[in-house]
Amino acid sequence: MSGLILTALVILVFIIIYQIAKASEYANIIRGEEVVAKSTNKLMAVLLVVVFILGLYGIYKCHQYLAPLGLPESASVQGLEYEKMLHVTLIITGAVFLATQAVLFWFSYKYQARDDKKPYFYSHNNKLEVIWTTIPALTLMVLVAIGLKNWVTITGKAPEGALKVQVMGKQFNWVIRYAGKDGVFGKTNFRLINDANNILGLDWNDPASKDDIIVENGEAHIINNKDVQFIINSRDVIHDVGLPHFRMKMDAVPGITTTMWFTPRKTTAEMKQLTGNKDFVYEITCDQMCGKGHYSMRGTVVVETEKEFNTWLAEQKPYYDLQHPAEAAPATAVKEGTETPAPAAAQDTTKTVASK
Amino acid sequence: MGNDATLAHAHGAHEHHEGHHDHPKQHFLTKYIFSQDHKMIGKQYLVTGIIWAVIGALFSVFFRLQLGFPESSFPIMEQFLGHWAKGGKLTPEFYYALVTMHGTILVFFVLTAGLSGTFSNFLIPLQIGARDMASPFMNMLSYWFFFVSSVIMFISLFVQTGPAAGGWTTYPPLSALKEASLGSGLGMDLWLISMVLFVVSQLLGGLNYITTILNMRTNGMKMTRMPLTIWSFFFTAILGVLSFPVLVSGVVLLIFDRHMGTSFYLSEIFIGGKALSHIGGSAILYQHLFWFLGHPEVYIVMLPGMGMASEILSTHSRKPIFGYLAMIISLIGITSLALVVWAHHMFVSGMSPFLGSVFVLLTLLIAIPSAIKVFNWLTTIWRGSIRFTVPMMFAIGFVSIFISGGLTGIWLGNSALDIHLHDTYFVIAHFHLVMGVSAFFGMFAGVYHWFPKMFGRFMNNTLGYIHFFITFIGAYLIFWPMHYAGLAGMPRRYYDYSAWVSYKDYQPMNAFITVVVVITFFAQLLFVFNFFVSMFRGRKVTSQNPWKATTLEWTTPVHPEHGNWEGPIPEVHRWPYDYKDDGHGNDFIPQNVPLRPGEEEH
Lengths: 356, 602
Description:
heterodimer; A: 5-stranded mixed beta sheet; 5-stranded mixed beta sheet; 10 helices; 10 strands; elongated; B: two-stranded antiparallel ribbon; globular
């Protein structure tokens, strides 16, 4: 009922506005359309300029309010390059923006219809066209060159010895896996997944899987100033690992393994200091719509010193032991025996994951 | 020529009734419903488009209320949405359904069908000097396929599990598995069926537009004498015909995956507590098929606005369009590049980095023809004699917003920059400005400019100006702040940001945007109101050529019948932008006026 009344009210208001507008139209005819058209024209030309100036002021105000809310400087080495590129792009497009908008509104005002001025018949000028084809083309090539240089670095192979962390997306949270003591990710098979005791579908027949560490609360620990490679999968639909503070992002696609690597340069503690926010935390966003809980698919990253990381890792129990408490003791014994080939096998981790 | 058949037909009917009526009296059903008159079909597209636009915009108001005021409840939403907004609080499921339908409706039903459907139909025969389309019957079918597709999409809003909710791009597996989301149930099937019918409609229409433009131009109407509107409709149709079929293939494979157990897009999925048997498919394949249409679609939406803005800027500045040939060449450039840049939507999908580089280069190249167009528009109004009519205001607004939205394309097209900005509010700001608002501005300019030709009446000016200023300022207030949120990496398509340490501070910004959205929405309703009331009550058009324009549609009677011209079709002797002294005190020379002795063309 209230909806009906509201609709009726809106329509009523519109009718009133329309009638007033209509009445002014009749009044215009009485006053002489020519005269009115001229004064309207002048008014509109002035209003456009007013809107332009208010717009500039608005941009300034907007910047004042929103710029402080932005992200702190990049927390990854690669992100610093990103920021440089962003600044170059901002300066170029910003200059073009201001120049073209200013010209548009200035011309609109300056060349409003006047009795004493005739429009100038000017249909083409090939020299001008060539100029404003070449200059944008050259500028764009510069931007492409900077962009591709960064793109090749970012998408290139992860450096040797990078810490490998698997991030797996599922509706609606992130699961993190470390290779454990042997440095090798155990084989997985999606048919073995069981939410109760095998969340990633680890194949227990593969000895490498027995020491794998799984963090179910989506908190990834990584080491400051040490390259890290995320090996990204999804269990159900497409997700996306977004790391805004590191200026990184990569889709998690079921059936396909994607990777992304970067070098963190600020620990979480340093970031807390830098931002003056004691609640600061690196967040993992999901950037690909994945269903009703998309907005709540939150993970976190803790960047810490190597020592802190090792302490933390040592506290983590292998997932197998957590799920099979009874066997825990013998399993550890077996692992100690096979510890030696670990460094050689570490090279193959991506292959293991990628080829599954 | 093909014209003669239509001409003979129209005249046959005309002569038959001579002596009784001036014009043959048509049955209501064939005149207004199953009409084969391109003008009526254009109006049908327009009215359907307006209805969809109101629905689509209303949806955006609903989800903006959620974003702006996540703690509050709005009983009015329960009135409209029932159990999806119990107690006036939107559920996350329906939030995503609204987002999805908002995109689908506006991109396809409003800015494709409602925009090029309206103006291609209405203007092509009128501006090239033809009695009607090459196949008026196919043209009618095109509208009715669109209508059926609309009805199916509308029905999907009311099914128990809700309409499709996987985003307008409907990426599988989310859209393929009913376990993944409520919206991937019956609602998704209806979405897919509706889309296939929509493509049928677009192909029937598009083939007709192309054929008509190529074959039915009046004597003297060389390709290089066609108004830029026609050029833009021509390339719009070509893009549609080349890319829509690919969408159908993507959609059909998705239907197979959903119902026939195939694995085109699905592989190694564990969902709803069990592992599915699908193996070996690629979810990325769908993205390629989708964006092969999806990106040209952006230009299908953009080009008509560009064409109409060119026409309107020239007419109301009383000056020829600057660089007519350069405008055509840049249209050709945009059209060809539009077909080879689709994967820039997939930079973070894990695609081959080398392929990514190629798409970066091609994508940024497209900025060149766009820049040429902007410079040409600016030079067109330079030293003009500008009449700030309502269509002119919208055309100027079009250029302003096209610049603002277009420049951020240079950011997003550069893959290394895109990584961080991908799927954030920056993208929302970019594409809403460049293909949403600016396409709408082109459309509004067109509606205000050709309304007198459509209905023999003017729309109300005062309301038009109010509509312009609220919409123009509103658009910037809504989308400008989003760039900042996007630079901070704030993800799009979130129902609520309050749990996020990095983004909860943007709450006041979201609330501000929502308030502006509501105001701007009412300004659009004012336009709709103005449109329908002016159809019956607007100031009458008294002269044949109220804007003093040069193109052929203004040589028809104020109320043209089916067949457009009462006598023979006028012949064309000059290019469409001869805004110069005609020697009789007029500042324009229509296309059908022969060259004066000694006068050189253009």
